[in-house]
Amino acid sequence: MDANVLAGLRALVDAHRLRIVVRLATRPATVETLATELRQPVPSIRRHLDVLIAAGLVEPRPDAPGQFTARLDRVGELGRALAALDADAAGRPVTPGGEWPHDGEPLADTLERLALTPDEGRILRAFLVDGRLTSIPVQGRKRDVVLRLLLERVFTEDRAYPEKEVNQRLALFHPDVAALRRYLVDGRYANRAAGLYTRSAPAPGPPGAPAPRL
Fold first, then answer.
1. By the 8 A CB rule, do 24 and 67 touch?
2. pLDDT greater at residue 73 or residue 39
3. How far apart are CA 177 and CA 166, in angstroms?
4. Which of 78, 84, 173, 207 could be stapled to 112 by a disulfide with Cβ–Cβ 3.0 to 4.6 Å?
5. 21 and 68 in contact (C-beta within 8 Å)?
6. Rounded CA gap, 19 and 38, in Å?
7. pLDDT of 181 strictly over 90
8. How far, in Å, CA of 160 to CA of 106, rounded?
9. What does DSSP assign to residue 119?
10. Above 50 in pLDDT, residue 100?
11. Alpha-carbon distance 167 to 107, whole Å?
């Protein structure tokens, strides 16, 4: 296993450090804010941050002294590494470097395949920042736009996905993976049976073709 990946996984073995990364993935925060929200002493938060910074999972914000933010690119690397290990253990093909198939497709190309309307594009831009969801839309119509994107970025292959792998992939977009799984199933974008998930919505056609509607 890559030494950087191993260092990241070791850093996240501690439940407190994992909570810090999840919290910082939503928005930056100071040591004092983290201590208050996570109910930990300030010195303890500082020690955990030192470990996470050394592992490349957290970094200080140069434009906001005293604030820290999660390194989502590194979190994504760990998620892909875990997905690759899980696929390898299950005997499934793994793409070079353990990457997901969609990693070769820029987000802009995925959006083009979805053939979003201008209004849907505005909705997505309001909730998607730097490749992550700032929140899960409450309104059904807006949530459907987000779910269509998640379907294409998470369920990239025509196969059954174990719940653990679905969680790993969804976690790269938002920490509340249970809610996202439920919305995907309830919205009939994905099917769930015996702990396995498959996509039920058809994949959109090539760029320029109209996206299928449920």
1. no
2. 39
3. 8
4. 207
5. no
6. 8
7. yes
8. 24
9. H
10. no
11. 20
